[in-house]
Write a structure and sequence with these properties.
201 residues, alpha+beta, 3-stranded antiparallel beta sheet, globular
Length: 201
């Protein structure tokens, strides 16, 4: 037997042990998001309406039946914990498949802090004009830390970690954004929690 044989045996054993540890982790990861990939087709990311007439043509009547016919399950949806967020099916695949799964795939559920809210049959705060939430065309995200009028995004998640602009980047872009307009960009009254799939309104 060569003097190197015990050393080679230890190397082989080390590789075997490392493989035994890594493979189950990879298998769990593959099962965790098995088969998921972004859908950047026009079905998942359809044209974004601009102006009231296009919004009405796209989403239908305000507070109509279609305004909350899609949903996805979000961690920290409310202060009580996880729950469903409802919105229009026109943005259903973009929100429920692309955005929600992106957060899950990145293992960043902790970035989501309550409240996450979608459809709401209401006016824009302080006005008598309908909110895009009344069409199910807008989602408020991490609203407890990002109130209307605040001129910056507070990226602290439910786990206390600072995630920067991770969530806004997912919603709006550039890559891997999904073409939502970010309310922080309104000059007159910034709304950092607000992401809407329409412009010109």
């Amino acid at each position: 037997m060569s003097p190197r044989t015990p050393a080679l045996a230890w190397v082989a054993l080390s590789v075997l042990l490392a493989t035994a540890i890594v493979l189950p982790a990879r298998a769990a990861w593959a099962h965790h998001m098995d088969g998921w990939a972004h859908d950047h087709s026009s079905t998942a990311i359809p044209p974004r309406p601009d102006g009231l007439s296009q919004i009405q043509a796209t989403y239908g009547p305000v507070c109509g039946d279609g305004a909350n016919d899609a949903r996805s399950y979000w961690p920290s949806q409310s202060s009580d914990g996880a729950g469903y967020v409802y919105y229009h099916s026109y943005i259903g695949r973009n929100v429920g498949y692309n955005i929600r799964n992106h957060v899950e795939a990145d293992h960043r559920n902790g970035a989501v802090r309550w409240l996450v809210g979608g459809y709401n049959c209401r006016y824009i705060s302080g006005t008598t004009s309908w909110s895009l939430h009344a069409w199910g065309a807008a989602i408020d995200t991490n609203s407890s830390l990002n109130p209307m009028g605040q001129g910056y995004w507070n990226g602290t998640g439910s786990d206390g970690t600072r995630y920067g602009t991770y969530l806004p980047d997912i919603w709006r872009g550039a890559y891997p954004g999904h073409k939502f307009f970010w309310g922080l960009n309104w000059d007159s009254r910034p709304d950092p929690m607000h992401f809407q799939y329409a412009t010109g309104y």
